[in-house]
Design a protein that fits this description.
Shape: globular
Distance between the termini: 38 Å
Number of strands: 14
Number of domains: 1
Strand order of the largest sheet: 5-8-2-1-11-13-14-12
Order of helices and strands: HEHHEHEEHEEEHEEEHEEHHEHE
Strand content: 15-25%
Structural class: alpha/beta
Number of helices: 10
CATH architecture: 3-Layer(aba) Sandwich
Length: 288
């Protein structure tokens, strides 16, 4: 891509064009689910963190919910454990849930907090266990310690937002007996966004959004309603790994989120394009 030289007048014009969107989102809560390729590519990771800090600086209350599958796989490989998945969910025995907690609540979470702070933000890392933010129960004995969210306590998140911090949340949870569970990142983000009644939830993925032809980014559908999404599932347009992502979007909308966007996290500054431009990015899912 060619480097583009902007005049000061053009820079001013860009900022002025963003003003209505800054007004719209300043003071509002936006939940970003962060994972996939945008998380493993160091340059993209830096750009995502810069975008989040920029939004925070203009007054958007950003809550960052993250996964960390590749890092979990890496540590499992180092200790000689083989990763197993059933319908996209990691089979999680006791040893694996210890690894998940170590990687997500430890290394990945603190790396993101550190990066946000080097970019000029004020961030605090939490897991779903802290303050009892995410309470869960076993989803299916065959999956082991994979959890269904049964309760979200938002007060620790709200306290951080009120004191002008960016909460960074890893998706491990516990039950009342103290058992620890691995929670699917998209599902956790949907529950958290719903409990916070967020203005918007942004789900960063490795594809452009919902497409009529999954191999043709030009066939992207910019906006769908819940009923349209159900039709697209029936017709097979929404299939495979996109089904649980769209189901999480619907869950978030039904829980009180205004709208949800599925977008390609591999595109630099896609978050800013979505929130601060006319065109947006990805597929927006609305109640209709």
């Amino acid at each position: 891509m060619m480097d583009m030289e902007f005049t000061n007048a053009q820079r001013a014009e860009v900022l002025t064009a963003a003003l209505p969107y800054i007004k719209k989102y300043s003071g509002k809560c936006v939940v970003v689910k962060y994972g996939g390729n945008a998380m493993t590519d160091p340059k993209l990771k830096e750009q995502v963190m810069e975008d989040i800090v920029l939004l925070w600086l203009i007054g958007v209350k950003v809550v960052l919910v993250h996964g960390g599958g590749p890092e979990i796989n890496e540590l499992m490989h180092k200790v000689g454990k083989q990763a197993q998945f059933v319908n996209g969910l990691r089979v999680t025995d006791k040893e694996t849930v210890d690894i998940v907690q170590m990687v997500l609540a430890g290394k990945v979470n603190k790396d993101l907090v550190n990066l946000l702070q080097t970019k000029g933000g004020h961030a605090v890392g939490l897991s779903g266990i802290d303050g009892g933010i995410l309470e869960a129960e076993m989803k299916d004995e065959a999956l082991g310690f994979v959890g269904n969210v049964t309760r979200v306590r938002t007060q620790p998140i709200l306290d951080l937002l009120a004191h002008n911090y960016i909460p960074v949340l890893s998706t491990v949870a516990s039950d009342q007996q103290g058992n620890v569970y691995n929670i699917n990142g998209d599902t956790a983000a949907a529950y958290i966004a719903g409990a916070l009644h967020a203005e918007r939830m942004i789900m960063m993925t490795d594809i452009a959004g919902v497409m009529i032809d999954k191999d043709d980014p030009e066939s992207l559908i910019p906006q769908i309603t819940i009923s349209h999404a159900e039709e697209l599932k029936q017709s097979g347009v929404i299939s495979g790994g996109m089904i649980p992502k769209v189901d999480c979007c619907i869950e978030a909308l039904n829980a009180g989120v205004d709208n949800v966007v599925i977008m390609d996290g591999r595109i630099p500054h896609s978050i800013l394009m979505e929130l601060l431009t006319d065109e947006g990015a990805g597929t927006m899912v609305t109640k209709g």
